[in-house]
Design brief:
The complex is a heterodimer of chains A (135) and B (839). Chain A is α/β, with parallel strands linked by helices and 135 residues long. Chain A has a domain of 93 residues: OB fold (Dihydrolipoamide Acetyltransferase, E2P) (Beta Barrel), CATH 2.40.50. Chain A is 24% helix and 30% strand. Chain A is built from two helices and six strands; from the N terminus they run αβαβββββ. Chain A has a six-stranded mixed sheet with strand order 1-2-5-6-4-3. In chain A, strand 5 and strand 6 form a beta hairpin. The N and C termini of chain A lie far apart (80 Å). Chain B has four domains: 188 residues, no CATH class; 192 residues, no CATH class; 140 residues, no CATH class; 103 residues, no CATH class. In chain B, the strands form seven sheets. In chain B, strands 6, 7, 8, 12, 13, 14 and 15 form a seven-stranded antiparallel sheet that branches. In chain B, strands 20, 21, 24, 25, 26 and 27 form a six-stranded antiparallel sheet that branches. In chain B, strands 4, 5, 16, 17 and 31 form a five-stranded antiparallel sheet that branches. The longest helix of chain B is centred in the N-terminal third of the chain and has 34 residues. Classes of the chains: A alpha/beta (135), B alpha+beta (839). Chains A and B meet through helix 1, strand 1, strand 2, strand 5 and strand 6 of A and helix 15, strand 3, helix 17 and strand 15 of B. Strand 1 of chain A pairs antiparallel with strand 3 of chain B.
Chain lengths: 135, 839
């Protein structure tokens, strides 16, 4: 076998290893129902749940609890329209109210989804979409 | 009055910029194809004139937009959403890269500058390179065109000159008042109000823009039927691009380290990865270009890598601007509806390059010989593969959202999400590539400069290897390194340093001229060691040793890895004695810290009235003066005492920005030679909320009595009559009394002086409070018969901060190594530019 072939084989092997590790480490976007099933199966990998914040007709977010200033919990409506309770052991993230969509990364613990990380899709960061003051 | 002219002018310039880019590309192309040299020259000159008009269009667009921002014309959406009235001028420049349209403009601007550089430096290559340049400029120009094609209602580009009322057609205010202009803009994201954010984006964009140059030379070379000559020109420009892109990446890291509070310089965020991926391929292409230039080998590899670099730049642009990253990135741009256009841009140049290379494949010289492990270029190639694999790993994972989009586009459904722990996912893989790159950056130059067979290799390689093993063993023992990949990374990086120092020594006769490569490799190895220690051995020093948790609802991290500092009290933390001295505000002009508790707020948060004679402001301002401060920034002065007579203070910052919905902490860093002490507040008393005073039982006291206020001993020292109160002189029949209570508290004694007055038979009471201790006293009643006084006592939240502190060992190696690496690249670049000039 020529050296060139050995090198090519090594590179192909490394590429396959990279693809496999990416697939292995990749998390999933799931609904609350699937998250519960995964938790019941004893799978403790962190997963992503995407959802919207429930709002009343005036656009106020419902079900947010900040009474414990240091902990924050809220409701999230997933793609199946199921409302799940999310608990986050950190203060409320900056810009949370403005989020159009919220992604929580964590796992189900009993009835609640315990979030390790909250990602927000905010229109406000780069494009303002509402006129705050009209004077 | 709406000022419509600047916008119309700006829009006109955008159209000029776009149309003349396309026309110039066409004319340059015709010039390139023309066989008759005289006519070809005429065409090229005509193409250049069109380029100049295009350049005027680009500069005109930028000037119009800057005019709109500078003059606060909030009738324009761009100014309204990215600027505000009290934004300093240097941050107005930052508005350009906060918005997408502005950053396209910046990119166009750099291409114009590089185009001017190309025309004047390499006149022989004007037509071929500028053909490609102007095609790219036409695509970029179309992104900000903002034109709707009538009939099919197809919108091309997003214009920065759109009026606010056009942007918000549904806002009720515009229905009643079409000429409404907001009085203030919504301001620049406070995280971007930082000097690094003024210089880091333009440098990164210059790096991005200059990746086009090697690509244009390659395509240009194929167009003019010279599949080899382009290499000499592409090499210095590839070095130029890798220096600026590398500098941009590191500046971004430094900004994140200094401004964001995640405690590091790199977070594997998709936006960071989008720059890192092409940079690795770019550096790989520098190495193949080098071998192509010296030996005429690897020409095909150079073409593929130069193309890949440029395509990856376009792919990065697509990732960060099309909205495809969606939920995965905290700071990707919002979708402006440009995805389709960006995809066309990407595919156009991918297909063009593939077609051009495929058509000329057989004409590309390729001295195909079996590789030899002792040949000069063999190890360089292996190094190139290590870089490409590193890039491939990041690319595979960062593209996860793209796979979902493709599967969904094909009608399927895919729910793949990025790794939940990106730092482990990338870090565990990248460390092995880094080990490979370090070893090969030692071997590559070694074989390059020394003609070696196996015997000679032994005699050459033994000294650096022995030196390396000795140093690395000592470091391993001293720093207690146990992890196998860490040991390998340390050893291979040290090997790279020693081997390259040896090579340098051998080359020293030639002076600095030849040493660029070796210096760059040494710099890189130092960077790797800096990353190894600062990231691998970062240590939290703010351990909670009190035995108590702060709050049961805090996360474990918060409870165990932070220290709670009550104001004025001294705590031990590792080698330091810490005292939290109080909240501070920074004056806008002088940048001096003043006591936030001793100023009076005005209706504008950026102005306060001094309520004390501030020593720091002596000669600048005195009591009752109004001074300008950075109202959003709250600093917390913390004194660190190392030993007697050796102390320093840090001012970690918390930004209160109601628009951003909360509190943003930024670190303050004390730099030592061998480490950084990195601190940020994790929790503070909300400065925007007035203290919540709780009324305690009132007490009666006589002069000289000792009291206990919230466990602090206090003495009721004195009562005196006063004649004046807040500028009013009291008249006959009025009574004015001021009591003085001295509180003995940690961090020094505090005086409270509540006032009691009777004026026109009305009773007035002015309470005095100490926010640091959370004590407020009001003089309620005077009992002359008993010779006693009745005080109302209220207690509030005493001031505290919860602080996190980390030590980052040898982080200076990271920054220093970067500078050395860049210096090496610049040296190599200079040498390759002078080669070109000699031709």
């Amino acid at each position: 076998m020529k050296k060139t072939h050995i090198i090519i084989l090594v590179i192909i092997a490394a590429s396959i290893a990279i693809i496999l590790s990416t697939a292995g480490d990749a998390s999933q976007y799931v609904s609350f129902e699937e998250a519960r099933e995964l938790a019941e199966e004893g799978n403790d990998k962190l997963i992503h749940v995407v959802g919207d914040l429930p709002k009343d007709s005036d656009g106020n977010i419902l079900g947010m609890d900040e009474s414990q200033k240091v902990m924050f919990s809220f409701d999230l409506v997933d793609i199946n329209q199921e409302v799940g309770r999310v608990i986050y052991q950190e203060p409320k993230p900056v810009d949370f109210e403005r989020a159009e969509k919220v992604v929580v990364v964590g796992k189900m613990e009993g009835e609640h989804f315990k979030a390790e990380k909250i990602l927000m899709k905010c229109p406000s960061k780069y494009v303002e979409d509402e006129l705050t003051e009209a004077s | 009055m709406l000022q419509l002219l600047p916008g119309q002018l700006g829009h006109f310039f955008v159209v000029v910029c776009f149309v003349f880019a396309a026309a110039s590309a066409l004319v340059y192309y015709l010039g390139l194809r023309e066989k008759d040299p005289k006519r070809a020259q005429t065409l090229t000159r005509f193409g250049r004139s069109l380029f100049i008009i295009h350049a005027i269009g680009a500069i005109g667009t930028i000037s119009s937009l800057f005019y709109i921002i500078y003059h606060h014309l909030y009738e324009y959406h761009y100014a309204w959403s990215h600027s505000s009235n009290n934004l300093p001028v240097h941050y107005m420049i930052s508005c350009f890269w906060e918005g997408q349209e502005g950053s396209f403009l910046l990119w166009i601007f750099w291409h114009v500058m590089l185009g001017i550089g190309l025309i004047s430096l390499h006149p022989k290559w004007e037509a071929p390179t500028m053909t490609v340049f102007m095609m790219v400029q036409a695509f970029l120009g179309s992104m900000i065109l903002g034109v709707v094609i009538p009939g099919i209602e197809l919108k091309i580009g997003s214009s920065p000159f759109i009026l606010l009322r056009e942007f918000m057609q549904d806002a009720p205010i515009f229905a009643s008042q079409p000429d409404f202009i907001p009085e203030d803009g919504t301001g620049l994201n406070p995280l971007l109000q930082n000097y690094w954010m003024v210089i880091h984006p333009p440098i990164t964009f210059l790096g991005f823009a200059s990746c086009l140059v090697p690509f244009s030379f390659m395509i240009g070379g194929l167009l003019k039927g010279d599949p080899k000559g382009w290499v000499n020109y592409a090499l210095p420009w590839a070095l130029f691009a890798s220096a600026f892109l590398g500098l941009g990446i590191m500046m971004g890291g430094y900004w994140a380290y200094e401004t964001l509070n995640f405690g590091g310089y790199w977070n594997w965020d998709p936006v960071e990865n989008a720059v890192y991926i092409p940079w690795l391929v770019l550096v790989a292409s520098v190495h193949t270009l080098f071998t192509s230039k010296m030996y005429g080998k690897a020409l095909k590899a150079s073409m593929i890598l130069v193309t890949s670099t440029f395509i990856l730049i376009l792919y990065s642009t697509f990732l960060t601007r099309s909205g495809v990253l969606g939920d995965t990135s905290v700071h990707s741009f919002t979708d402006l509806g440009l995805s389709g256009q960006l995809l066309i841009y990407l595919f156009f140049f991918t297909l063009l390059a593939i077609w051009m290379i495929a058509r000329n494949w057989k004409k590309i010289p390729d001295p195909h010989k079996e590789v030899n492990a002792y040949s000069k270029e063999f190890w360089v190639f292996i190094g190139v593969f290590a870089l490409l694999l590193a890039s491939f790993q990041v690319l595979m994972t960062t593209s996860i959202p793209v796979y979902n989009s493709i599967v969904e586009g094909l009608g399927g459904s895919s729910n793949l999400a990025p790794p939940a722990d990106p730092i482990a996912h990338y870090g565990n893989a990248q460390i092995w590539f880094a080990i490979g790159v370090a070893i090969l950056s030692a071997l590559g130059p070694f074989f390059w400069w020394n003609k070696l067979d196996l015997k000679e290799l032994r005699s050459y390689a033994t000294p650096p290897l022995i030196i390396t093993l000795i140093i690395s063993s000592v470091i391993m023992l001293v720093a207690q390194i146990r992890s196998i990949p860490y040991i390998l990374l340390l050893t291979s990086a040290l090997f790279s340093i020693t081997a390259n120092v040896l090579t340098l020594q051998r080359l020293h006769k030639a002076g600095l001229r030849l040493s660029g490569g070796s210096l760059a490799h040494i710099g890189l190895a130092i960077v790797l060691i800096g990353i190894l220690f600062s990231a691998g051995y970062s240590r939290v020093v703010s351990e909670n040793l009190s035995g108590k948790i702060y709050h049961e609802d805090f996360s474990e991290e918060m409870n165990l890895k932070n220290v709670l500092l009550w104001r004025g009290k001294t705590y031990n933390m590792g080698d330091y004695e810490l005292t939290y001295l109080g909240p501070r505000l920074e004056t806008r002009k002088e940048g001096i810290m003043i006591d936030r508790d001793r100023v009076i707020n005005t209706s504008d948060p950026n102005f306060v009235i001094l309520d004390y004679e501030a020593e720091e402001l002596q000669g600048l301002a005195s009591i009752n003066d109004t001074i300008e401060v950075f109202g959003e920034n709250n600093y917390y002065e913390i004194r660190f005492k190392v030993e007697e007579g050796k102390e320093f203070t840090l001012f970690p910052r918390a930004q209160i920005n109601p628009d951003m919905g909360g509190l943003l902490a930024s670190p303050d860093i004390k730099k030592f030679f061998g480490k950084d002490l990195y601190t940020h507040v994790s929790s503070i008393v909300d400065p925007t909320e007035p203290p919540d005073w709780k009324t305690e039982p009132s007490f009666k006291a006589k002069l000289g009595d000792t009291l206990f206020l919230k466990d602090h001993p206090a003495i009721f020292e004195n009562v005196e009559t006063i004649e004046q109160i807040a500028g009013h002189t009291l008249t006959e029949g009025d009574i004015g009394v001021k009591a003085r209570i001295r509180i003995i508290a940690p961090g020094g004694e505090k005086l409270l002086e509540p006032i009691f007055i009777i004026h026109d038979q009305m009773i007035g009471r002015i309470a005095d409070e100490n926010l640091g201790l959370g004590i407020r006293i009001t003089l309620m009643e005077i009992l002359p018969d008993e010779n006693a006084f009745v005080f109302k006592f209220q207690s509030g939240q005493a001031d505290y901060v919860i602080l996190k502190a980390m030590e980052k060992p040898w982080i200076n190696l990271l920054w220093g190594g970067t500078l050395l690496c860049l210096f090496g690249i610049v040296l190599a670049m200079r040498r390759r530019f002078s080669d070109v000039r000699k031709e």
